[in-house]
Amino acid sequence: MAEAGRFDYNGERAREVSFPLGGIGTGSIGLSGGGRLIDWEVMNRPNKGVTNGISHFAVRAERDGAVLDARILNGPYLGNRTGDFPADTSRNFGFGARRDSLVGMPHFRSNTFEGRFPVAKLIFRDDRFPGEVELLAFNPFIPLADRDSSMPVAMFEITFANTGDAPIDYTAVGVIGHGLRPPTRATSGRSDGLTWARAATDEEPPDAADYAELILATDAAQTSRQTHLYRGHWFDALEVYWKDLNAPGPFTERDYGSPDYAGGMGRNRDSSLVAAHVTVAAGERKTVRFLIGWYAPNFRKYWVSPVWHFRQASGASGQWKNWYATEWPGVDAVGAEALARWDELRDRTVAFRDALYGSTLPGPVLDAAAANLSTLKSPTSLRLEDGTFYGWEGCHPNAGSCEGSCTHVWNYAQALPFLFPALERSMREADYRYNQDEVGGMSFRLSLPLGTKVATERPCADGQFGDVMKLYRDWRLSGDTDWLREMWPYAKRSIEYAWSPDNPDRWDPERTGVLWGRQHHTLDMELFGPNSWLTGFYLGALDAGARMAEAVGDSDFAAEVRAIRDRGKAWVSEHLFNGEYFVQRIDLSDRTILRPFIASERAIGVLGDGVEALYWSTEHKELQYQVGEGCLIDQVLAQWHARLYGLDDVFDRDQVVSALRAIHRYNHFERLDDIYNACRVFGLYDESGTIVASWPDPGNKPAVPVPYAQETMHGMEYAFAQLLMAYGLFDEGVAVTAAVRDRYDGAKRNPWNEIECGSNYARSMASWGAVVMLAGFEADAAAGRLAFRPALRDGGRSRAFWSGPPAYGTFEMRAGQIQLDVLGGSLRICRLGLPIGVDAPTDLRVNGRSIGFDMFDGDLVFEPVELQAGVRIEVDGPGISLAGLVDLATLDGQSSPTEPMVVTA
Length: 905
Description:
Immunoglobulin-like; Glycosyltransferase; Beta-galactosidase, Chain A, domain 5; eight-stranded antiparallel β-sheet
C-alpha cells in the first residue's frame, strides 16, 4: 500500500535530498532534489558537500538559428542563502549561496522529484522554456548481478517533450569538473559512436595512490564538445560558458593542450563539456543519454586505529586495488561498456524497481526497505581487490566511521544477503579466515589490509553468534554444501568458544545454554550475567550449529549443541521473563561479579584502565552500563533472525508477544520531546520513535545505565517493527516503521541517508527484512525448495518480491491461483511450499504446460524445474484463498488481531 506521493520529494520535501548514484563499493555522486550534482564521493572516501566544481547539466532550445531559451537543468535552490560550511572551501559562509550550486545562473522555476531507488526521475517546467524536460538518473542495480551493480558509473537520460506547434532544436549539455588532485590533463574525442571528455591525474603513474580518471560521455548522433571551458581568473569560466551556451549551434572546441595547475587566483580548476543535439518535432519526445564514470583504482588505508590497535601484517601494504580496477582497465572501458549495454542495464534495473514497488507492502515499510538499499552505493561500502565486500558502519563527512565490517552492526543488515548473496558470503569468509583466533574467539572488526592481526579487540557475543546464524542463512540461500564444509570448522570453534577454558569472558563454562560472563555487544560496553538479548543469539547459533553439523555429517556435535540449546531455552523462559518482558538477571550492588574478569582481563584500549574502573561506580556503589530490570528494544532480537533464516523459535511464543507489547508500551513515543535524551539525537520534538531502553519502574533504573538508552537506532526500530507485524501486531509495526521514515521526509533529513554513527549507516538495512518476513519467504536451495506464506493483501491480491537464492522474481496470489514469475538468475526447484490453509491444488503449470505433482507436508512436490528469467509457474485450485491475510486497507487506525499470526514456518 504505497500511499500516493510518498516517493515524491517536491518543494520543501526536496530540501535535504541527495540520491546516491554509483556502484557497490565504488563510491557515488549525489543527485539533489533540484537536479544538482552534489556529494562527489568517488575518490575512495566520503566527501560530503563536495560538488566537483561546476559539474552540472544544462539545456538549450533554438529554432531557425536563434536561441529561444537556455538554462541550467536545476530546479529551485533550497540551500542556505548566507552560505554553507562545505568540505571543499573555507570561504563560503557569509559569501552568499554557494557559487558552485549555480544558483546565480538561470534555472527552472519548478521541478518534481520522484525517488524510487535505484531510479530517480525529475520533471522540469518553466514557462520561459519551450517544452518540458525530464531527467532519469540511475545506476545498474540488479539482484545477483554483483559485477554489473558494481560499475563506477552514474547514468542519465534527458528527454525533451516539444509541447509547441513547430520543431525545436534542443541541446543537452553536460559539464564535468576536473575534481582530481591537480594538475589534471584533459582529452576529448569521438569514436565508435561515442563522444567523450576525459580528465586524468597528471604527473602521477597509474599505480599511485592519488591517481584517478573521470569521464563524461554520450552516444548521441549529433554532438559537440569543449575539452576545456575558458581558463581564466575570477569567475571567467562561468562567464564565458554562459555566453557559449546562449549562442546557437554546436559548441566551438577549446583545448589548451596543457595540464590544469589551478592557476589564476587558485580557485579556477578546469572543466570539460560534452553536448548532445537533437531536433524534436511538435508533440514528440526524444531522449539523449549521458554517463559520468570514475576510476580511482588504488585504495590507500588513510586511517589509523588508535582504539582497536590493529597491527599491520608482516609485509602487507597499506594500498591495494579496488575490485573494479581488476575488472575494467580504465574509465574509458567503464564508459564504453555502460553505453553499449545501456538498454539492458536500464531495463533490468527498472524491472527490479517495478517488481519491488509493486509489492503489497504498506507504504512506509516499502519506503524503508527500498531507500536503505542506497547504503550499498554509498562510501560505507567497499569491495577489496579480490572482490570481498567490506563495510564501514557509516561515514564521517570525509572519512569512514568505525571500520571493519563490524559484525554486531552488520548483523542487522539484510539487504546484501538477499540481493547479492555472493558478496555476503565473502563477508563470512573474511570474518572466519582473518578475525578468528586459534581458540575460536572472533574480533568483531576486520582490519585492512586482509591479514592484519588484531591486538586487543575482544569478541562480542551478538557479533560472534550472529555470524553463526548468518552462515546458516547464507548456506540455505546458496545451497552450496561444499562451501559450508569449508566454513564449518570455523563456525564450530565459534560455538565451542562459549564454553572454552581459554575464553577469559567465561560465557558459558558449564554448557548451560545461557551466557553468564562478560558479554561485549553493539551498545559498545559489556553486560554481566544472563539476559535474553545476547543469550538469544547464543541459542540461535546453537540451533543453526546443530543443523549445519548434521548437513556436514558431524552428528555427535549436532546432538550435543541441541541438548545445550534446549536447556538454555527452558532456563530463559523460567528465569528471565518477569511476567511482562525479558530482563537481565543481575544484582547491581554486587561488585564481586567483576572479580572473575580481573586477572584474565584483556584491556580494551582507551575505554578504561580495567574492568572495575569501567564498570563499578564508587559514588553510586553499583555496576554501570547494565540493563537490569529495563525493557530493551532488542530483548528478543534473535527471534527476528530466526524467523528470517528459517530457524526454530528462540523463545516461548506467548512470552515473545508479551515482550513485544511491552516494548511498544514503554519504549515507543509519539513525541520524542516527552523523554530526555543525553545521547545522540536522531529524532526530536514532535517526531515519533522507539528508544533503545526504558525502565517502567524508574526506581529500578541504574544510575549509569546501558549507553545510548534514549536513542532511536533505526535498525533496531525496523527489526522490532517487523517482529510486531510477524506476530500480528500490524498497526503497531507499520507505525513504528513510519515513525522512522517520517523523520527522513526530505524536508528534515535526506531519505537516502539514515544516520547513526555517521551517515549512510549500515544497521538501517535491517529494513529489508520486511520484504522477506511479510512474504513468508523461505529458500532451501540445497533441497530445491521455495516457500511463501504471505501476511498481507491489497484487496484481491497479495504480491511479493523474492530474492536470495540464485534466482529472483515475484510471487502473486489471487483467489483460485498462485503465480510465480522469475526475473533473473538460475535455480532448480522441486518443492514449492504453499501458504497455510491452501487446499490441494488442481493444476500446476510451468510456462503454460501442466506437469504432475504430489503433496507432501504442505508442499507441492514435482520433477525438478529450472527457474530462469521468463519462467512462470502457476498453481490453480478453488482452495487458494486470501482469507486470513491482513488487508492493507484495514491497517490505518484499526485494531490488530489479538492472536499472533504465523508468517513464516
